[in-house]
Design a protein that fits this description.
This protein is α+β, with helices and mostly antiparallel strands. It has seven helices and eleven strands. The strands form three sheets. Strands 1, 2, 3, 4 and 5 form a five-stranded antiparallel beta sheet that branches. It has a four-stranded antiparallel beta sheet with strand order 7-8-6-11, with helices on one face. Strands 9-10 form a two-stranded antiparallel sheet. The protein binds one DNA strand through strand 6, strand 7 and strand 8. Its main location: cytoplasm. Component of the eukaryotic translation initiation factor 3 (eIF-3) complex.
DNA sequence: TATGAGCGA
């Protein structure tokens, strides 16, 4: 919220005005959770006013996701790639910057103060603290790039778990179809943890199939085909079988599928990377499969 | 909405 109050000129201010015609510089305080900006301006009557703005720094789930994913190291064929996207395997679409500072009253205040601010701009009394041009910092066209990304994305939470098995990395999957928030903290049974490197019982399905390296994919769009799944999952490791559940009569996809990897650790990585990803406008859920018949 | 087939010596 922002508060504007008239400020009586002090002797020091008078001197300052005479000398430079300038206002006290804006003061910005931040404690990690919120931010207070105090800046000075003139109102229509030429009176000096003090504007105090409080911002809440949003600990956005998506921001954390993005920050976390950026720390993953590369694996497989991309293991030795430099950090950042490799143009040979990755298409980078246009960047989308998000507002991570929220200010509920911002719109209201903006409307109220719009004329005032425009006036101030004409007088050349407004200088952006970020790019030094004559608009308000709040309205800086580069604000999204310059300010919140650093402070809000990084230096906030340390990233804990890395993908298993030391073969992590940004997968060379089709980035044009991927993107979006993820779901974390899914329950993993003890026998399935650590990428299954500890040899437990061999999970056999009722049909006698080895299910130790099988993932179940749900929330697939109905026009996803086996071939699409193959393309999506192949970058994580060799696949021995893909089953896309379809209606026997109509052939209509039921929206879920099973992917059998040859190696369990590859399945684990696929889950790490693809669970929660957006694919064809839906958010994929990728989890360990249970042998059919179990609940 | 949701844990996959049919075969039938």
């Amino acid at each position: 919220m922002s508060v504007a109050e008239e400020v009586k000129s002090s002797w020091a201010d008078e001197v300052e005005e005479v000398e430079g015609g300038s206002l006290p510089p804006p003061v910005e305080k931040s404690d990690g959770n919120s931010k207070t900006i105090t800046e000075y301006s003139f109102n229509e009557e030429g009176k000096k006013i003090k504007i105090t703005s409080h911002y809440r720094i949003e600990k956005h789930r998506v921001a954390r996701q993005i920050a976390k994913r950026k720390t993953w190291t590369k694996y497989g064929l991309s293991k030795n790639d430099k950090p950042g996207p490799n143009p040979a395997t990755t298409i980078t679409a246009e960047d989308v910057f998000m507002h991570f500072l929220t200010n509920k009253e911002e719109e209201q205040i903006d409307q109220e103060d719009l004329k005032k601010k425009l006036l101030d701009q004409q007088k050349g009394q407004v200088k952006c603290r970020l790019c030094k041009e004559d608009h308000w910092t709040k309205r800086c066209p580069y604000k999204d790039k310059l300010e919140p990304l650093r402070t809000s994305l990084y230096g906030e939470e340390k990233v804990e778990d890395e993908p298993q098995q030391g073969t992590p990395g940004v997968p060379p999957v089709d980035k044009t179809k991927l993107g979006g928030p993820g779901t974390q903290g899914k329950y993993v049974p003890p026998s399935m943890r650590d990428g299954g490197s500890k040899k437990g019982e061999s999970m056999m399905s009722a049909r006698g199939r080895d299910e130790t390296a099988t993932v179940r994919v749900t929330n697939l769009s109905e026009n996803t085909r086996e071939q699409d799944l193959q393309e999506l999952f192949r970058s994580f490791g060799d696949i021995s079988r893909i089953f896309l559940a379809k209606d026997k009569n109509t052939g209509q996809s039921k929206g879920f599928a099973f992917i059998n990897f040859k190696k369990r650790e590859h399945a684990a990585i696929a889950i790490q990377y693809l669970n929660g990803y957006g694919y064809d406008h839906l958010i994929l859920s990728v989890e360990w499969a249970k042998p059919s018949g179990t609940q």
